[in-house]
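Need a sequence for this fold. Nothing fancy.
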């Protein structure tokens, strides 16, 4: 409620319930006023802009603003409830289930945990694969001259791969392919210190991911951290309030408070 021109009181609406269209609400209020089903409103103005919703209901001087507001709550969608569909397909049976709010939240947490585990498993496999290649490069670096000589002496790529996979060098197929895909000048330019640093970093990452996959609490901690980051990045003030108790409007809330005379006969009528 706020004061406007001429000393009148106005009901200013800056937010609408979920799913309520502004134009539909205005048409409903105008219809009620024209049909004399809603009294006390002198003027309706839509002052909405790019900044947000702003609907002004100017109240007549002889009307009770709170009473008019209660009628708006009761007769229009300015206050409403809406149903939440908590039906979901869960479990191994993959059958639809009706969920409670608690079950819906725990199911979402389980889903996020599964996402984190799958992502971590993929990242660990990728790190292990790269670590395997780096180990092969370090092994080749340790006997670089012999590796280069063996590659140059081979007639074909298959022969060079076979030599690198032999007991002389002991490389795997993936390691041999990685070395053969490099130009000789790049192979000779390999730095042992850089490869060792990368190996230490990859080993630490693999250990971290393995520990994460082994303990559910660490998975939950990752979920909490990611949600906190999302909240910080996209947080906006909550527009609706969540209340434990709600009182339905009664007839007394829709009746004007005014003086009256009650007559009672001697016989109690």
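Here you go.
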């Amino acid at each position: 409620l706020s004061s406007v021109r001429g000393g009148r009181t106005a009901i200013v609406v800056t937010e609408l319930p979920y799913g309520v269209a502004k134009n539909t609400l205005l048409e409903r209020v105008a219809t009620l006023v024209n049909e004399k089903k809603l009294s006390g409103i002198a003027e309706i103005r839509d002052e909405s802009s790019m900044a947000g919703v702003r609907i002004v209901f100017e109240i007549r001087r002889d009307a009770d603003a709170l009473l008019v507001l209660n009628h708006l709550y009761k007769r229009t969608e300015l206050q409403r409830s809406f149903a939440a569909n908590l039906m979901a397909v869960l479990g191994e049976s993959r059958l639809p289930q009706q969920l409670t709010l608690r079950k819906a939240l725990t199911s979402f947490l389980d889903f996020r945990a599964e996402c984190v585990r799958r992502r971590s498993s993929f990242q660990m496999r990728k790190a292990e694969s790269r670590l395997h290649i780096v180990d092969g490069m370090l092994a080749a670096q340790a006997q670089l001259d012999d590796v280069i000589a063996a590659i140059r002496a081979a007639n074909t790529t298959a022969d060079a791969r076979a030599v690198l996979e032999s007991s002389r060098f002991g490389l795997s197929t993936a390691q041999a392919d990685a070395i053969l895909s490099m130009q000789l000048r790049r192979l000779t330019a390999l730095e042992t210190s850089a490869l060792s640093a990368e190996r230490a970093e990859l080993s630490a990452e693999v250990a971290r991911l393995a520990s994460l996959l082994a303990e559910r609490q660490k998975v939950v901690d990752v979920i909490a951290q990611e949600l906190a980051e999302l909240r910080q990045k996209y947080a906006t003030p909550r527009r609706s309030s969540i209340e434990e108790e709600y009182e339905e409007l009664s007839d007394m809330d829709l009746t004007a408070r005014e003086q009256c005379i009650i007559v009672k006969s001697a016989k109690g009528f």
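For context: The longest helix spans residues 101-142.
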